[in-house]
Amino acid sequence: MKNIIFITSRLDKDHGGLTASLLNKARILYDYENIKSKVLTFHADHNFRETSAEIKQRYDLEGKVDIINLNDFFRTQCSNRDKKQYDVDTDGLISVKVNDNKMEYYHEGLKKLEVTYKNDLIHEVKHFSDNSICVKKDIIDKDGYLYWTSYYFDNKLSRQVFYKLDKTPVVTREYDATSNKQKIKNVVLFEDTPIRFGNFDEFKEYFIKQFITDDYTYLVGEARALDPNIMNITDARVRKIFMTHSIHLRPGTDVIRLGNRQVLNNLNDIDALVLLTQQQRQDIIDRFGYRNNYYVIPHSIKISEISQKRTRDKVVLISRLHEEKRLDHAIKAFKQVVKAKPEATLHIYGDGDERTKLQNLINKLGLQEHVKLMGYSSDVDEILQTAACSILTSQYEGFALVIQESIANGTPVIAYDIKYGPSDMIDHGVNGYLAENGDIEDLASSIINYLNKSTSEQQKFSAAAIEKASQFSNENFAKSWVKLFEQTEKNKTVFKPEAKLININQKKINKNNYKIDIKVKLNAEKYVEPEFIGVFYHRSTLENNKISKCDCVDTKVTQLEGDLFKIEVPFHADKYKKKEIYDLSLEVKDESQYHNIRIGNQRESFNIQNLATRKVKPYYTKNHDNLSFKL
């Protein structure tokens, strides 16, 4: 029995696509592979049981997944004492009704308590000092049991105590009350033998470890904030898998997004990285090196039953009305579309802070009769089935789920060719069109081109869309995940190589040809024969990782003993362009490990200046001690 645990920060009744994809994944694994999984959450929610039950019903997860919350787990551990419901003592206090859901209680003119009700049950009780400052707040669950008490110092959270159902403390969190950041300093867990944790992360990791079994345990990281906690767990029974839901670089830059750095900078220490598109996988390989544990498993979708009649010149766009969605591009493109197709309409579904700005643009371009802001709608299938095509103009996406929804309804898509998603789901000229990213004229001409097609031609596009969507079936999705789990069961060989420059020699006949000798110790757990490749980076291209260039050269490898190797790297200056600096690194890699090591940290061993010629100057860079060759 596979022990699969999905790790996410929180689970709310109202949640976004990331949480929805996790819950659907858990359901599909059970429905198609009979795998019951667990979902671990870490937020404090006194309505957790109610929320969990509602979500299980909504996603058809009853009996298929266990949803477990950190606070609820320890709170409901067995106790020999009787349960005690919460009761607030108001004897001797004067009550004042604020509204139907709130009462205040006074003593000698000073407010002492403020009681908030929800569905006629006590929900929250605030305790006040003589200076009318809230010093304590009790949170009660819907069954009438005290969940936690928050204590305040100088209006800042200083401590929280969580309680079992018998009203005995189970967890205390101490906060840094010198700031408003609510940073947890330490945690105490009151078990038979109390345990003190130096920070909240240690407590979260202790919680995760409660579910590791002797069978393989697969920890699937679904929220970037919890990646460090998974990485910190060292247990031979655990396989660490990380799900990527969005782009990994800051838009328009080559800078890794903060939340992605923990995993991407430590790819040798994970068992699998799951990506939604082939394009993102290739970008990861280009930036971080090839490993065989990069998996592409796109979202799955069920083909919709077509029940609506299409309106020939109707175009739809489903999106949040946010700046990064570039909906102004769609509106500007439609100014050109209606000149060629006067009957064409664009219906935009969604809400957001750009609504007024977009309506003003519609008015300015005189498109009020052609472009409509329809607001949010949950009837996605009906919207898509009534349209001739849909469009997408986003600056970036993690997968562009709306494209998948569109083709599953037989609605071709015209989209900017962005990262990531469109090129994985749109076959240009077959089930839609890929327009040049940001090119409004190309977008407009693609829309016009499609709307000008005959009914039979559009029907072919529609059929091709459904055929493409069938590739993303639930069955294929489940099989891909099971295959991943099985492949990660094999123990990979981990090594952390160290490289030392030991010599640089010039050829006697051609002084511009060099042989660089490097000693490499793998520090491997067991015997491994990796591949060694010399890499000379072009200094002028290194400021932007998107366009960085390098030359790779074969090496001569000699095994000295055990995991100690001598590597010879050639540098033939005559083969390289002039007016460039070449920085040397050594790639050491096997199937699942990739290391890129700067070479040149032993400058005291020999006088490198004596190796210079009129054409080539070897030297060490100041910042990194790289061995570099200036031509």
From TrEMBL:
Residues 306-466 form the Glycosyl transferase family domain. Keywords: Glycosyltransferase, Transferase. Its EC number is 2.4.-.-. InterPro entries: Glyco_trans_1 (IPR001296). SUPFAM superfamilies: UDP-Glycosyltransferase/glycogen phosphorylase. One of its GO terms (molecular function) is glycosyltransferase activity. It holds the Pfam family Glycos_transf_1. It comes from the Bacteria. This is Glycosyltransferase. It comes from Staphylococcus kloosii.
